[in-house]
UniProtKB/TrEMBL annotation:
Top-level taxon of the source organism: Bacteria
UniProt name for this protein: Uncharacterized protein
Entry-linked Pfam families: DUF6148
Length: 73
């Protein structure tokens, strides 16, 4: 299994969001670092699923922040 970096996940999310914008305007073709895709407005559901997947991956790969604690002076 190939590991995906946070940067790659963010790039894929950005490409999916761009694809959604273009799909809502009509058919399109877009190239990414890992390939290309072409679509028609009918594939908006597929693009929305891609966006959800890549958002989850970005969240999973992002550094966790612990709870903030404020100590009285």
């Amino acid at each position: 299994m190939v590991a995906i970096t946070l940067l790659q996940a963010k790039d894929q999310l950005d490409a999916a969001v761009a694809a959604l914008t273009l799909a809502r305007q009509g058919s399109y073709s877009i190239s990414t670092g890992t390939g290309s895709r072409a679509s028609t407005p009918a594939s908006v559901d597929s693009i929305l699923k891609d966006i959800a997947y890549w958002r989850a991956e970005v969240e999973r790969l992002s550094p966790r922040r612990g709870p903030s604690r404020v100590y009285p002076a």
